[in-house]
Design a protein that fits this description.
alpha+beta; three-stranded antiparallel sheet; 7 helices
């Protein structure tokens, strides 16, 4: 078992034998794969998830992927690092000057600490016709006030009624592209990313067992197009370019991926590209073929709410 678990996820999936079990075991498996669950599968089912499940709609590859991702734990963020926090506070004044906010000649009361709003996006994975993992993407409407015409993952800002990040991501996906949350098995959340407008964005990974069950119905006010792309492309250096930026004295890279499907060309870049690079690295258990270099998730108290990343 140890040797098996040590192999890359996709390699494990290709070697799965067919399951010769009775259908009475299926309810237990699927109860562990329902949306919004965060606990790993019971140990007693560990052998079953490495096998094909007939008539379930969920291939052996996706079952393996679901269990492995449920065991994923995001690395601790620097939010818990007191020394880093102190450095951020000390450099806040420099950041304010750098983004052009006027500084008072007299001492004033400290500004209220900026607290980023929370958002979530859905990384919805499914098997393509050739057996490859693909991810659902959207092109935002050109009429939107922010990120108009850009490629993004379904998602948006959290609402008070949302129980968790998974509910935010799946609710937004239903509103934007008509994706029924019941079709998606949410398996894990990744570490937060910082958006251009200083949103704390949580990527939520979900698995769509059968792409044919999903008939996109984009909300024209928000979404211009719905398409999909192979997840593994975000680990390759093909059709990719990047730009270097600086935030809080730290350099980071913005990645651009040129992609064409159905005679339509898209550019997947910025936050969306960064999230997909990270997701692909976790799923395929290998780093990208290029330098990733994400910006550190830090927002000093001196930054105003309308500040954007450079």
């Amino acid at each position: 078992m140890e040797k098996w678990l040590g192999r890359p996820l996709m390699q494990q999936a290709h070697m799965l034998p067919l399951l010769r079990r009775t259908s009475s075991l299926l309810p237990s498996i699927f109860s562990s794969l329902t949306p919004h669950s965060s606990s790993p599968l019971p140990l007693s089912l560990s052998k079953l998830v490495f096998m094909e499940i007939p008539n379930s709609g969920l291939s052996g590859r996706l079952v393996v992927l679901a269990q492995q991702l449920r065991l994923y734990k995001p690395p601790p963020t620097s939010d818990d690092d007191e020394e880093e926090e102190q450095r951020i506070e000390e450099s806040a004044e420099k950041v304010v000057a750098k983004v052009g906010f006027p500084e008072s000649a007299t001492s004033a009361a400290p500004a209220e600490r900026f607290s980023p709003k929370r958002a979530a996006v859905l990384i919805c994975l499914f098997e393509g016709d050739a057996g490859e993992l693909r991810v659902i993407l959207t092109k935002r409407s050109s009429q939107l006030s922010t990120h108009s015409g850009e490629v993004s993952l379904p998602g948006g800002k959290a609402e008070e009624a949302d129980a968790n990040d998974a509910e935010t991501a799946t609710r937004e996906a239903k509103e934007e592209i008509g994706l029924d949350p019941s079709l998606v098995n949410v398996v894990t959340c990744l570490e937060p990313f910082l958006s251009k407008h200083l949103l704390r964005v949580i990527p939520v990974i979900g698995i769509l067992s059968n792409k044919k069950d999903f008939n996109p119905s984009p909300n024209a006010a928000e979404v211009e197009a719905v398409f999909d792309a192979p997840l593994e492309m975000f680990l390759k250096d093909e059709n990719r370019r990047c730009e270097e930026r600086v935030w809080m004295s730290d350099k980071y890279l913005i990645h651009y991926f040129d992609y064409e499907i159905d005679n339509k060309k898209y550019v997947i870049w910025g936050l969306t590209a960064g999230i997909l690079i990270r997701a692909a690295s976790i799923v395929y258990q290998k780093p990208p073929a290029f330098t990733e270099q994400n910006p550190k998730f830090k927002v000093p108290s001196g930054v105003l709410k309308d500040t954007t990343l450079p």
